[in-house]
């Protein structure tokens, strides 16, 4: 059913300048003309505007901006990502669905997307505010043939993809706050949550979840995060197409991922560091034993933070509380 619908959209899309007859559609899809008509009604429910003329046939006039498997797939120019898409109007968390799908054998590149999450998950067991139709709440299932130790590199890569797309598509100037928060004007607009199912040296699957605040106004963000969170709408004073952003991100992710698999981490590291928040600057670091000032030098192959102490010695840090804003409030995670 679903694939007939997609073929139908494809046929209409390929002929969008002209009408395509019900007879031809019925022959191509090997279904009756009344079945074609029913599909057209379903597409209209999805928000497609379709013109039907008795002697000519059908023609798509416009595509909806609302999210559905069809609308995301339409115009999505990728080789492997998003070939399978699960869309939910509302769900607890796209991460939950992604894990279920992955355990049931979902293919590399499967995408789970929701208009709303009722129990969105952030890093460190925090919750992620995911209001209906206002942001991109997306999880990707990947089955990379890399070692589990390399998995953090994929999170860093995802952050660079988001930064690239926001810069090119929304004309903003994003920075990446280690390890993977996307900041606009020092406030977080996107976060990434990577979860992995792996054995000793084999990854069964990885789920990369991306939350991107798109069209919330300031008053639509919960009060307790307003001082540290933002959205594209707040920063640009414009609404942005969530569907368009999803497509841009998937296309850019596929390209970056393929390059990473081919060429390894150095390009990702370079790109990440070009967006790195406070690189080359002094930051305040708190570990269990210590509290000190250091210069943030960059990131390591394993995603660790590289710093230089005041005595000139360099160190790798995996987890630390960092006072990024020098105001004694840890803004590291929303
Ligand atoms: C963070 O804490 O910065 C990570 C936030 C990740 C949120 C996304 S929204 C889509 C996916 N589903 C979830 O429940 N979480 C991730």
Overall tally of structural domains: 3
Q: What is the string of SSEs from the N terminus onward?
A: HHHEEHEHEEHEEEEHHHEEEEE
**Neighbour order of strands in the largest sheet:** 3-4-5-9-8-7-6
Percentage beta strand:
25-35%
Cα-based radius of gyration, to the nearest Å: 22 Å
The major pleated sheet works out as: 7 strands, mixed
Q: What do we call the CATH topology of the largest domain?
A: BirA Bifunctional Protein, domain 2
Query: How far apart are the termini?
Result: 41 Å
Number of helices: 9
Give the helix proportion (percent range): 25-40%
Mean pLDDT figure: 91
> Per the principal axes of the C-alpha atoms, what is the gross shape?
elongated
Pick out the low-confidence regions. 328-334
> CATH homologous superfamily of the largest domain, by name?
Bira Bifunctional Protein, Domain 2
- Broad structural category: alpha+beta
Q: What's the β-strand tally?
A: 14
CATH architecture of the largest domain: 2-Layer Sandwich
Look at the structure and give the CATH class of the largest domain. Alpha Beta
Molecules bound to protein: biotin
Structure overview:
- It catalyses: biotin + L-lysyl-[protein] + ATP = N(6)-biotinyl-L-lysyl-[protein] + AMP + diphosphate + H(+).
- It comes from Oceanobacillus arenosus.
- Its EC number is 6.3.4.15.
- Belongs to the biotin--protein ligase family.
- One of its GO terms (molecular function) is transferase activity.
- By secondary structure, the protein is an alpha+beta fold.
- It has 3 domains: 61 residues, Winged helix-like DNA-binding domain superfamily/Winged helix DNA-binding domain (Arc Repressor Mutant, subunit A); 207 residues, 2-Layer Sandwich (BirA Bifunctional Protein, domain 2); 52 residues, SH3 type barrels (Roll), CATH 2.30.30.
- It has 9 helices and 14 strands.
- The chain has a 7-stranded mixed β-sheet, sandwiched between helices.
- β10 and β11 form a beta hairpin.
- The longest helix has 22 residues.
- It is elongated, with a radius of gyration of 22 Å.
- The chain starts with a helix and ends in an 11-residue tail after the last strand.
- The protein binds biotin.
- Biotin (BTN) binds next to α5, β5, β8 and β9.
